[in-house]
Amino acid sequence: MTKEEIKHIGRFTKKFLILLLVLFVCDRVIGTLIEKAYNDAPEGDVNTFSHSINNPKEDIYIYGSSRAVHGYDCKVFTDSLGYSCFNNGRENSTILYHNTILNEMLKKHEPQIVILDVSAKELTWRSAENSKLVLASMILPYVRRDTNFRNIAKELFPEELRKAEVSKIYAYNSLILPLLLGPEKADKSNIVNGYLPLHGVKEEGTPPELMDENDKTDVMATQDFENFVKVLTEKHIRLYVIQSPLYVKPFSTSVSLEAMKAILKKYNVPFWDYAFDTAFYKRQYFYDNIHLNDKGAKLFSARIAGDIKKDLEKDKALPVQQKSLANR
Fold it and tell me: What is the span of the domain harbouring residue 278?
């Protein structure tokens, strides 16, 4: 190798190292700015997630996917039962997400009542995989500062964790656009205690079929569902598992529903099925075929709150209107 070739390699190596240094500094500076925006985010999914793991304090917590987010009005529950309430639902999530977040919340706070809204596809593998991506987007911003979340990430999505450890920006990859848009443009600024109302009727016509893409349940999803139920029953926290109203062609059951019912029976936990309750099976109460609009959500929330009130009074498990709402 000639002296010129050695010099050329040296210059290339020097430029390459400088480029790496510039990229590293840019990643850390931009990542820090995004982290600050994340921590300051006042609304939306970021705030809902952050509240549930950092500052949980309400008496009632609602878990579930987008059907929970748009279907359970916390104010109705508080007005009816006298308990503070927070809707901890998350778009595109399933039991994998809910079980993880529940266990993190219980380390700091034990509510009086938990409501879990489930779907007929809750335990299928596609749902579990999709929920894993949602969970990753919420957990990765915490892996650098919280060992518990780092361990969760290491177990569930190790490749994503490695990327987040190398790049500070990567941890916020799926959240950058909502953070840049801000709450006013992100169309989630009207969230109240996690509840996001939908207004009007988006779709007309006859109810479509709701097809289940799988004929078997996912092992991880099934285990997480049982863990969710088990930890609450062991802590004597009142749990209600609910299938909320749908505007699709009626079906009797699904593989997921049967599996969940068997687990609930094992732990003596009620399953309340309102999927095709005639009181709600009306086009005027739905934004689309699977999500209640604000009018339907208020009506449904009042029904659930009333049924819970009757259940509590019947068993005298929790005296209604006992707790102070000063900390709401």
Answer: 58-124+184-315
